[in-house]
Specification:
By secondary structure, the protein is of the alpha+beta class. 47% of the residues lie in helices and 15% in strands. Strands 1, 8, 9, 10, 11 and 12 form a 6-stranded antiparallel beta sheet that branches. It is flat. The model is unreliable at 1-131 and 216-220 (pLDDT under 50). Residues 332-470 form the Nucleoporin Nup54 alpha-helical domain. It comes from Blomia tropicalis. It is found in: Nucleus. GO terms for molecular function: structural constituent of nuclear pore.
Length: 525
């Protein structure tokens, strides 16, 4: 089962794995509030946990200060927007709009991106036309970046270093490196070489697979999943869970209780933990979406890294809403052609259960193989447990059958004893009473049966004949067992058989001579 990651990514740091584009979500501004929208795009890493872009929007009163993330050890945490005098922004923005573009470990933040980064516009200042102006400026910047990108693409495959036939050879070698998804492309004597990677759009080692998804129809399980690096084995990780819980409680304060559970062990020394937060006052679980948005704040990654002693990787979750799934499917991932992405969506065997997932490069394929091996091992372990359970049940069934037979024999014996006792009591009770009509009729029936059994030609005669045959068979078997052969008789039998054998051999020899004589006479004639 694949998990989906909604962790946020800083625009200046390329992520590892595969990015699926950036989507913006807008929220209509309301009077007295300012909106902040932030895009977060996850990665498809070694744990086969691919991610989707999410948008978290929060509001705060324009007449109060912005909220800030409580540090480790403070007890001022709240899942609802709170106001402090701190100028830093955590749960909401104050008259500002932030948007992060997807980098995804490719050519950087903008180079060779097949789709221009979409931007959102916020409410800033007092002019109602400023969002349109900002959008126009951003579109102009995107067009300029696209032109620069196209120029740089052309220079990679048509370098100008020596201004002779060697440039063509270098251009062809750059093409091979681009198709392979690795290497450095030298295209100018005045610029540093460009380094290819697997997420580039020219990489040929890519394909589309399908992963099973879950929808968020069930609201009972309010848990968020976190991917961690394992230090040691599983027992050490379970021991460390208590420390992680204490760190979380210190970060959230005394108003909330935290429960961490180990969900799965992944290859490459990684593990998945589930986090559920309960409010002590109401004993209600914090909703998954609200908890996830809190953990996906820009400033929360460092705090989560401190909570998990530097082993935090990213925030995951296993369910997708229809809106989030449509957002993921609307934009092709970086490095995947739009036509291929559209064809993959059309060839989806079951859109309600599966979603297309790109595999780019050998690392992604290797990670998928590792996950499949892990799944096979888990299935084999589960199958072994089922076999052991079936064997134990068969043993229990055999013991139950033996006990049942014993109880049945005891029941028959007790029934016979009870019947015998009832007969004795009934006889004692009716000893002084006259014989009733039913009893006299029963006596007559029994006498008739007894007389029929004693008739010599019927049952009694058959029984006598069978008894005589059994006695005779028993006597014959005793005679056979007691008889011992005599050696003289054996010698006579042996001598007789030898004489018979000699006679047969003489007869055969005589026949052969006669046949030879007849053949010779026939040949002479």
């Amino acid at each position: 089962m694949s998990s989906f990651n909604f962790s946020s990514i800083q625009p200046t740091q390329p992520t590892v794995g595969f990015g699926f584009g950036t989507q913006q979500a807008q929220q209509a501004p309301t009077f007295g509030t300012a909106t902040t929208s932030s895009n977060s795009t996850g990665t498809f890493g070694s744990s086969n946990l691919f991610s989707f872009p999410t948008t978290s929007t929060s509001s705060t009163n324009l007449f109060s200060g912005s909220s800030s993330l409580p540090s480790l050890g403070q007890s001022t945490f709240s899942f609802n927007p709170t106001t402090t005098t701190t100028a830093s922004n955590f749960l909401s923005g104050f008259n500002q709009t932030t948007s992060t573009a997807s980098t995804f470990g490719g050519f950087g933040s903008s180079f060779m991106n097949n789709k221009p980064a979409q931007t959102s516009f916020g409410l800033s200042g007092g002019s109602l036309f400023q969002p349109n102006q900002q959008q126009q400026q951003q579109q102009q910047q995107q067009q300029q970046q696209q032109q620069n990108q196209n120029q740089q693409i052309g220079s990679l495959f048509a370098p100008k270093i020596y201004n002779d036939e060697r440039d063509n050879i270098i251009g062809q070698f750059n093409s091979i490196q681009a198709f392979w998804g690795t290497g450095k492309a030298y295209y100018s004597a005045f610029h540093p070489p460009y380094e290819f990677n697997e997420s580039d759009q020219f990489n040929r080692f890519k394909t589309i697979c399908y992963s099973e998804i879950q929808t968020d129809e069930k609201d009972g399980d309010q848990k968020v999943f976190i991917l961690l690096r394992m230090v040691g084995d599983e027992s050490q990780l379970k021991t460390s869970l208590l420390t992680y819980e204490q760190n979380f409680k210190q970060a959230l304060g005394n108003n909330y209780s935290v429960k961490l559970e180990l969900k799965n062990i992944l290859p490459d020394m990684k593990a998945v933990l589930s986090i559920s937060v309960i409010e002590n006052a109401t004993s209600k679980s914090i909703p998954e979406l609200q908890l996830r948005n809190y953990l996906n704040q820009p400033n929360s990654k460092q705090q989560l890294n401190n909570i998990f002693s530097g082993n935090f990787i990213e925030v995951l979750f296993l369910s997708l809403s229809k809106q989030e799934l449509d957002t993921y499917l609307s934009v092709p991932p970086k490095g995947i052609d739009e036509r291929i992405w559209t064809q993959a969506k059309l060839e989806n065997p079951d859109p309600t259960r599966f979603t297309p997932l790109p595999l780019v490069g050998f690392n992604a394929l290797n990670n998928r193989f590792k996950l499949q091996e892990k799944e096979i091992q888990q299935q084999q372990m589960r199958l072994k447990q089922i076999i052991d359970s079936v064997t134990a049940l068969e043993s229990d069934i055999s013991q139950f059958k033996a006990k049942f037979e014993d109880c049945r024999r005891k029941h028959a014996s007790l029934s016979y004893q009870v019947l015998k006792k009832m007969i004795t009591e009934e006889v004692q009770r009716k000893r002084t009473l006259p014989i009733q009509a039913e009893e006299d009729k029963l006596r007559a029936n029994l006498e008739a049966i007894q007389s029929e059994l004693n008739v010599p030609t019927k049952f009694q005669g058959c029984l006598n004949e069978l008894m005589s045959q059994l006695r005779q068979m028993k006597f014959q078997s005793q005679l056979i067992n007691t008889m011992t052969p005599d050696k003289a008789i054996f010698n006579e039998y042996k001598q007789f058989l030898m004489e018979e054998n000699e006679g047969i051999m003489s007869l055969v020899e005589l026949l052969k001579n006669d046949i030879d004589f007849i053949n010779k006479a026939r040949n002479k004639l």
